[in-house]
Write the C-alpha cells for this entry.
Amino acid sequence: MFTGTYTAIVTPFKKNGQIDEAALEALVKAQVKGRVDGVVPVGTTGESPTLGFEEHKRVVELTVRAANGRIKVMAGTGANSTEEAIELTKSAEECGADGSLQVCPYYNKPTQEGLYQHFSAIARSTRLPIVLYSIPGRSVISIAVDTVARLAKDCKNIVGIKEAGGDADRVSQLRQKLGADFNILSGDDSLTLPFMSVGADGVISVASNIIPGEIARMVKAANAGKFTAAQKIHFQYYQLFKDLFIETSPGPVKAAMAMLKQIGENYRLPLTKIDKDNRAQLRKTLKSCGILK
C-alpha cells in the first residue's frame, strides 16, 4: 500500500510567520513532477509541533488539493495526546488524505501497553490506513516489535511503520515477525539502502524535498533488485543525506531549499536558522553534489 518514496515535506512560512500557501502548493507540484509516490505533510519535517490545529488542517487540505490524486498524501496526525491524535486523524480523513502517519507519543513515555491502547484507539476512530512512526531519538521510547505485531494483528488498518531508530536489525525483526505485506519505510535517507537490503519497502525522505527524482529513482531501482544502480545514486548524495541533519531537522533542509530559491528560510521558534559554519558546509555539499551552481 505504502511503498516507494514519500517526501516528508517542509511547511514553508512567510517572514511574518504565516504559512506560505503558494510556496506549499509549488512544492507539492514539484514532488509530483519528481515522480515520488507520495508526500507526508505536517510531520516532524513539517514543523507540526508549532502548528495550531486549524493550521495543521489547512496544510493537509492544501497538500491534498495540490496533489490532486496524482500522488498519495500520508498526513502526519500523531500526538502525545490520544484525543488530539484522533481529532487530527479524523480531520485528515475529511480532507481527503490517503493515510495517516502516527508518531510514537513523545515526552510522556507510555508503556508498551499504553502504546498499544493509544494506537488501537486511533485506528478504531478512522478508516484511513495507518503507518506507525518509531523514532526513539525524539520520543525516548521505541514501539517494540511485539507491540507492532500485536497492533497489526488486531487493527487491520495499521499497515506499516516508519523506522527511524537507525537499526537494520529492527527491520529484519519486523519483516520476520509481520510478513511481506506489512510496509516498512526507512526514516533516514542514509539508511534507505541498508534497510531495503533486509526488507524495507522504501523511505519517508527529507532529501527528496530537494532531489525528489533522484530519491525516487534510487528506491525504484532497489525495489527492482538493481542495487548497483541504487548504490550509485546513494553514494552520489550520501554526504547530502548526512548534512541535512548537521543540525536539528528541518533547519538544514530549509536552509538548502532557501539556497535553491524554493522557499524563504523562515521557521517558528524554538527552531532557528543553522549557524554559519554548518551553512558553509551545507552549501559546499550542495555544490559538490551538483545541486547548487
Notes: The chain has one domain: 4-225.
